[in-house]
Design brief:
By secondary structure, this protein is of the alpha/beta class. The protein folds into two domains: 2-128 and 294-305, NAD(P)-binding Rossmann-like Domain (Rossmann fold); 131-287, Dihydrodipicolinate Reductase, domain 2, CATH 3.30.360. It has helices at residues 12-21, 42-45, 80-87, 113-120, 131-145, 174-177, 192-201, 235-245, 295-305, and strands at residues 2-7, 27-33, 57-58, 70-73, 94-97, 109-110, 125-127, 153-159, 182-183, 210-216, 223-230, 252-254, 270-277, 280-287. Strands 3-2-1-4-5-7-6 form a seven-stranded parallel sheet, covered by helices on one side. It is globular. The mean pLDDT is 95.
């Protein structure tokens, strides 16, 4: 049995991890650390877990770290690095960080299984990709690998409010977010750095020309992204390209039918649809930002790193209603 700990256990991504790992057949959740929730029952904070766990939050995992096989860091951006430097986890402890802190660190494996599966197997330091980055890379990387993404690439992606985290802010307040749409961090979103690095990894030469417009959506979870660029490749060639690229992917599926967000919400799936319009290729992708874009992908990475079946504990079903 794999003994795991969750650090920063009070937020959305930690809640999703708990829901997954409580029922994972090869996992025992040994400790859930949260400075702000210490002493409370986990089900008091994550109330959908009432009746499913008797775990309590602790203020610090302390010496228990030495008894763990894996730990998930679910703290705010900029906090994980301080935790790692202060705690100095043992080298054979699997650490999966869900923040931005190590995504550009060459000493950590970037945990996008669609391109780094072999590197993830056996790894002990994994930087989980960002949610926008995951959705966009599913569209961009096959094109980049084929040399079709050297020119201007135009990306528009809309995300649910959970992507901003659990701490309240003016743009996550219900009365502002409901029935509202807005653009933010136009052309400058922090996920562009990791997207650009992965594109270079698969062969993209250009270091710019990724034009990304992030959009806040009036819903709780999910990301729907559209990516388009000029190409002379035919629709049949594009579809073959994507089918070949994702032929062995456990959770990313290319479909001939138009996709919608409800197909992926509450699952670890990434859906991809490709069309050709005149001289433009249009790729639409959809993921659940809290699962394939965060905690589900983190469990997928844990499974791969520890030699467990990749899909174990992730047999989740979407509901269209």
């Amino acid at each position: 049995m794999t003994r795991v700990g969750i650090i920063g256990g009070g937020g959305y991504t930690a809640g999703e991890l708990l829901r997954l790992l409580v029922h994972h057949p090869e996992v025992e959740i040994a400790v859930v650390e949260s400075g702000s929730q210490a002493g409370k029952a986990v089900s008091e904070v994550h109330s959908d877990l009432v009746g499913e766990t008797d775990l309590q939050f602790v203020g610090t995992a302390g010496a228990m770290l030495d008894q763990l096989d894996a730990v998930f860091l679910c703290m705010g951006h900029g906090v994980s690095r301080g935790w790692v430097e202060a705690r100095r986890p043992k080298k054979d402890l699997l650490v999966v960080d869900l923040s931005t802190d190590y995504r550009m660190d060459e000493r950590w494996v970037y945990g996008l299984p669609e391109i780094n599966r072999d590197k993830i197997v056996g790894a002990r330091r994994i930087a989980n990709p960002g949610c926008f980055a995951t959705a966009i890379q599913l569209a961009l990387l096959p094109l980049a690998a084929a040399g079709l993404a050297e020119g201007e690439v135009h990306i528009n992606a809309i995300t649910g409010s959970t992507g901003a985290g659990q701490s309240p802010s003016p743009t996550t307040h219900f009365s502002w977010r409901n029935a509202n749409v807005s653009v933010y961090k136009a052309f400058s979103h922090q996920h562009l750095a990791e997207i650009g690095r992965s594109a270079a990894q698969v062969g993209r030469i250009a270091t710019d020309k990724l034009n990304f417009l992030p959009v806040r959506g009036p819903f709780a979870r999910g990301i729907f992204a559209t990516t388009y660029l000029d190409t002379s490749a035919s629709e049949a060639e594009l579809k073959q390209l994507f089918n070949d690229f994702y032929a062995d992917a456990a959770f990313t599926h290319v479909t001939d039918d138009s996709i919608d967000l409800k197909q992926v919400v509450n699952t670890n799936k990434g859906l991809v649809h490709v069309e050709k319009h005149g001289d433009k290729a249009l790729v639409t992708t959809a993921i659940d930002n809290l699962l394939k874009g965060a905690s589900g992908q983190a469990v997928q990475n844990m499974n791969l790193a520890l030699g467990l079946p990749e899909k174990l504990g992730l047999n989740l079903k979407a509901s269209m209603f």
